[in-house]
Amino acid sequence: MLKVAKKISNIINNKTFGDELKIKKISHVLEDKHPADISDVIEDLDSNSRLEFFRLTPRLVDSRVLVNLVNPYRTKTLAFFGLEYFKKSVHLLEKNELIEFVEQLNVKERKKFIEIMPKKMQTTVKFLMAYPENSVGRNMSFDFILVSENLSVENALKYIKEKKEIPDSCSEIFTENDEHELTGLISLTRLLKSSKKKKLRDIESPDIVGITAADDQEVAYNLFNKYHFVRLPVVDANNHMIGLIRSADLIDIAQEEITEDFNQFTGTSEDNEIDSPLIPNCLKRLRWLSFAIINTLLSPFIISLFQDTIQQTVALAVLMPIAGALGGNIGIQTASVVIKGFSTEEFREKQCSKLIRNETLMGVFNGLVIGLLLGVTVLFWFYNFKLSLLIFGTMVFCATWSSFIGVALPVMFYRFGYDSSLSSGPLITTITDVSGYIVFLGLAHIFLS
Fold this sequence. Notes:
Layout: H1 2-13, H2 19-29, H3 35-44, H4 47-56, H5 63-68, H6 73-81, H7 95-103, H8 107-115, H9 119-129, E1 146-148, H10 153-162, E2 172-176, E3 182-187, H11 188-193, H12 200-203, E4 211-212, H13 217-227, E5 231-235, E6 241-246, H14 248-266, H15 278-305, H16 307-312, H17 315-343, H18 352-382, H19 385-415, H20 425-448
Parallel strand pairs: 1-2, 4-5
Antiparallel strand pairs: 2-3, 5-6
């Protein structure tokens, strides 16, 4: 949208155009543009042009545009128009957009924004906001049809036909017993093809998997991934259906989970790094960079302990970086595979021991292959068999130890109930680098002294 933003900026800054002509030209440029595209244009405009855009074409800035803006542009837009301005367009928002937007308001703004909503929307938002932030309840919709399994096919079809509000994308109905417990579902195709006198309980599919509103949204993602459902019914503690979560919501959930894991693994922030304040972002990163600082201090200290050994064999200084580099790469590679496995439930808790064993054995194999290749290279490079043997032994240790650390740390976090991505890259790199230098220089002291 950068080209569009430049075009609009040129229109706004053209002194030969009057306001009416500017409005006409801007409206023509943004005609039929999606609200998300208009949000991109607003973000690409410079400050002065943005304010003029707001002044000239306020009708183009509605609630759908607002929720697609990232901070600080959303805050600046709110400051210009005020929350009351968006009252007339709040009904245009999808449920998930509305909840996401309300979550990002402060307490005072949230209360005020809810007050300007239509009563029905207020009830929906308050109900959904009562659930934890990353729960299924926050993502569920109420676009479903629930009928008694004791109805006949004829009466069920009559009920659906007379129902005032029918979901636009309804491909099945859900059934419940006399205690209002969820019992099954029936596709509309099967319902239409069945005999009108048959009871719904005779044609319903009892193989239905429900999910509770309090469950973490990652549970929903894993169920969709496992069973390939189109929709999942959301139930309460008594198995009463209270909502529905669609596979379309899976995209947002998957993106949130992947982003969250990636941010934790790399030690970065989930906020928009470009537009967020500099100092808070720096402080967030420093927490994880502290591991790198430890690594920076420990590595030279360890090297200094073996300076006599290094002075005796200059080749050690040339080969030393290999010990740290290999270990860190293998450790992060292994951890990435393990964290992905836990996130997508490819691995189960009972498989942890097998996982550690397999990854460690893989490290031994890789270490032997890499060690042999580097050992031969060093032999022809320095014509020193002991040095060749030293690099071989170091590579076997580093690959094995790094593979073990790369899988053991995520497994340990997982078993203690923590997010496995908390075993971040800086932590793994610190452990593998330091241990790699200790083994390399320690073996050098033994072999070459």
